[in-house]
Amino acid sequence: MASVPSLASTLHQRIADALSAALPEAGAADPLLRRSDRADFQANGMLALAKKLKGNPRELAAKVVESLPVGEGLLMQEIEVSGPGFLNITVSDKAITETLAARAADDRLGVPFKEHPGTTVIDWAQPNVAKEMHVGHLRNTVIGNSVVRLLEFTGEKVVSRHHIGDWGTQFGMLIQYLIEHPHELDHKAAEDGPAVSGEEAMSNLNRLYKASRALFDADGEFKTRARRRVVDLQAGDPETIALWQKFVDESKIYFYSVFGKLDVEIRDEDIVGESGYNDMLAETCRMLEESGVAVRSEGALCVFFDDVKGPDGNPVPLIVQKSDGGFGYAATDLSAIRDRVFNLKADTLLYVVDVRQSLHFKMVFETARRAGWLTDDVKAVQLGFGTVLGKDGKPFKTREGETVRLVDLLDEAIGRATDVVREKAEKVGLSEQEIVENGEYVGIGAVKYADLSTSAARDYKFDLDQMVSLNGDTSVYLQYAYARIRSIVRRAGEAKPVAHPELSLAPAERALGLHLDQFAATVAEAAGEYAPHKLAGYLYQLASFYTTFYDQCQVLSEDNAPELVENRLFLCDLTARTLREGMALLGIRTPERL
Ligand code: ARG
């Protein structure tokens, strides 16, 4: 981890620096320092170093130990050489408290900015127009939102792109139907009273979608008219475009209502759907064809890959333009790359998209590389996520075998969470309004946390009972830990959180303190690897360390000396702030009272 220039470094960094200084002849050798159960830290770097210097690792380790300042009140209280030449290091209580005090003095809790921030364009939260949002869209929204927050927190410039599915042949059918049934998308609410709700918007679209599909399948003449309408749409015929826009607007009302429920902020200017690249498609194809990256094959413009073959052994190309002249998903994504690299000046392109689209992205990235649009200076990454499964371990479906509507799931989660909150509400003295609000924070938090606490690539089971459980690795557990700490700090009255490095620490205080010290490194790692689950795991452990501390160390006891109360309040307060900041980076709220 990079050192924190303006602040006291972490214990980890301070020890690593001391070890390097003790062995100047080693140059920049990594001491391979890590947390350990035997002592606080273990350094294993002597082994590789001895090999390099052609010496004996134990002797080298002993020499290092001799030259290091060790003792009561210093950074390192004890060092012993163990095994073939490991160093077991125990830090002093004073150093722990002092280091934490420096973190507490910083609004960012000591999390450094990246040394070389760049520009990341991240493609996330991309539902499809005139279609219901499902659990897959939950994932690309929740994971994307957390990655954006993590990256921004480390100083990266982040541009969001919501590549919504707002183009394609199905719009010919929808628009033609609307022309023949002109009042289907009108709603009373638009003229009098409040604007149409997201639910209504979706139910209108759904009804229209089903009706037009039925007509399309049953009536050959309608089918022909619908196909002709696609041509009008692609040609930019104003009447057709105006109707298409109606579908997009209606869908956006619905999308925003779901994003709102998910407590995720989406900015309108970041919604640049497939249609946003229409003007670039022909040029993209021309460039690919002229450079020979793409070739005509049976009328279609294709890119071939040595390692992409179908079950019959024949190559499966990426089709950039179909033989009828139509452009598809690949042409749009290739044009989007040009836009993001050359106009938005991205040096990282990140795509939060289902792993089932991995082959598509592999081919698209490779094509863009061959075309020279992606170079060594631009990194393209698909942050692929796995499937949401039902309790039976199969892809999540309703009993009727239909896709589960995201809204229904979220409502159910909020309902369950509100019950949980209500049960404890009287004791805490919550008003009805607070119960409702907390129910939303807890319910939505539960859904997000379940999604973010396993690595994105893995499938996970959607199990509401487990998600809203008060025990175990859930957001509710973390939210309660936070609220409990806040209540202690409130009850402390006159006593304030103040660090007292002169006090010795109980084992549970040390364990909590050492874990708190790792927050900055964890955030840097989670951001660098696009891995919110690493932060989630850290926060869960933090809450567990806190629980042990709380059981073993009385905070507000009459028997405690005032300094002890203050120092314990200091640990409480820093834990609460770390939980709050960490949860915010996951997009989860932490109510003050729960
Ligand atoms: N709309 C697509 C879906 O619902 C996801 C789009 C992903 N982004 C992209 N640039 N292709 O699956």
TrEMBL record:
InterPro entries assigned to the protein according to its UniProt record, in alphabetical order: aa-tRNA-synth_I_CS, Arg-tRNA-ligase, Arg-tRNA-synth_N, Arg-tRNA-synth_N_sf, ArgRS_core, DALR_anticod-bd, Rossmann-like_a/b/a_fold, tRNAsynth_Ia_anticodon-bd
Cellular component, GO annotation: cytoplasm
A single GO molecular function term of this UniProt record: arginine-tRNA ligase activity
Sequence motif: 'HIGH' region, positions: 127-137
EC number: 6.1.1.19
Highest taxon in the source lineage: Bacteria
Domain DALR anticodon binding as annotated: residue spans: 478-594
Domain Arginyl tRNA synthetase N-terminal as annotated: residue spans: 9-91
Keyword annotations: Aminoacyl-tRNA synthetase, ATP-binding, Cytoplasm, Ligase, Nucleotide-binding, Protein biosynthesis
Known catalytic reactions: tRNA(Arg) + L-arginine + ATP = L-arginyl-tRNA(Arg) + AMP + diphosphate
UniProt subcellular location: Cytoplasm
Pfam families: Arg_tRNA_synt_N, DALR_1, tRNA-synt_1d
UniProt GO BP: arginyl-tRNA aminoacylation
Quaternary context: Monomer.
Family named by the database record: Belongs to the class-I aminoacyl-tRNA synthetase family.
Protein name: Arginine--tRNA ligase
